[in-house]
C-alpha cells in the first residue's frame, strides 16, 4: 500500500507540523518530586505513640523470655527424648524447643525494630544531591548532623521503655550461642589418663576374641589385644579401644635393652600401646629383625626393644608400656593400668 492510500490521521507526524507538535513539551525524564508527606496517627496523637512504644517493648520483653526458654529447654530436655507434635510428627523435643525459642527470640527483636521504625521514627523522605566519593569536610559535618537528627528523631533518649527493653533483648540473645558451646563436649578431666586396663584384666586376642596365653605369642610375631569384657557392640567401644588397644610382641629377653621393659614383660612378651604418640593413629607395621614399629600415618618409628623410644619421625615421646603377667589359668593378664596417658600429648599431660 502506498502512502497515498494510507489515511491521513494514521500518517506519522513530524516535529514542527501543525498536527501533534511537541515544541516546548519539556524534559520527559524530569524529576517528579516527592509526594506530600502524610502524618501518621502516632505523629499527632501521643496516646497512639505510647501504645506503639508499649507494643515494641512488649515484643522485646517476649524476646527476652524466649531466650530464657531456650536456655531452660537446653537444660530440661534430654537429647534422646522424642515427642509427637502435630503436624511435624515425632521429633526431638530438644531440637524442636531450641529452634522454636531461638527463632522467636530473633523474630521478636526484628519485629519490634520494624514496628518501632514504622510508627515512631521519622518517616519524612529527604532528597539529597549526589556528591563525589571522597568526603569533604562539609559532607562529614552534614553526616554527623544527619546522625544527630536521626538519633533525636528516633526518640531513643525519650522512649526509655523501648531503649531499656531493646538493650535487654540484645544482651540476652547471645547467651543462646554461649549455651550451645556446651555441645563441644565435656572437659576431659582425668579420662585421658585412665583406660580399661586394671590388675587382673586378661589380654584378649582381637582376632580370635580368646584370652592370650604365652605359648600363643611366638618370637618375632605381632598380636593385637584388648581388655576382657570390652564388647565391640558396646556404645563406648570406639572411645575405649582408642585408649586400650595393645601391641603384643615377643622378643628374646637378651635382646631387650631397657631394664624396665624387661621387668614389665613376661618371658620376653612385651605389651605396648598401639596408639601413636604423634596424632593417635593405630600402629601396625612391625619389622621383625630390628624390632622397630612404624606408624603408617607420618612414619614415626619406635624401637620396641628399647622401651619403645622414638628413633624417627614427629612423635614426641615413647609408646606407653603395660605391665603384664600370667594368672592362675595360664592366661596373660595386666598387672595394672598404663602409668602415663596413651596417645598424643595433650594439654593436661603432667
Structure summary:
Helix content is about 30%, strand content about 15%.
Q: How would you describe the overall organization of this protein?
A:
With 350 residues, the protein is of the alpha+beta class. The chain has helices spanning 41-44, 46-76, 93-119, 137-153, 160-172, 174-180, 237-244, 259-264, and strands spanning 82-85, 89-92, 203-205, 222-227, 246-250, 269-273, 285-287, 292-294, 301-303, 309-312, 321-322, 324-326, 332-334.
Record the SSE blueprint.
Layout: H1 41-44, H2 46-76, E1 82-85, E2 89-92, H3 93-119, H4 137-153, H5 160-172, H6 174-180, E3 203-205, E4 222-227, H7 237-244, E5 246-250, H8 259-264, E6 269-273, E7 285-287, E8 292-294, E9 301-303, E10 309-312, E11 321-322, E12 324-326, E13 332-334
Antiparallel strand pairs: 1-2, 3-4, 4-5, 5-6, 6-11, 7-8, 8-9, 9-10, 12-13
Helix pairs in contact: 2-3, 2-5
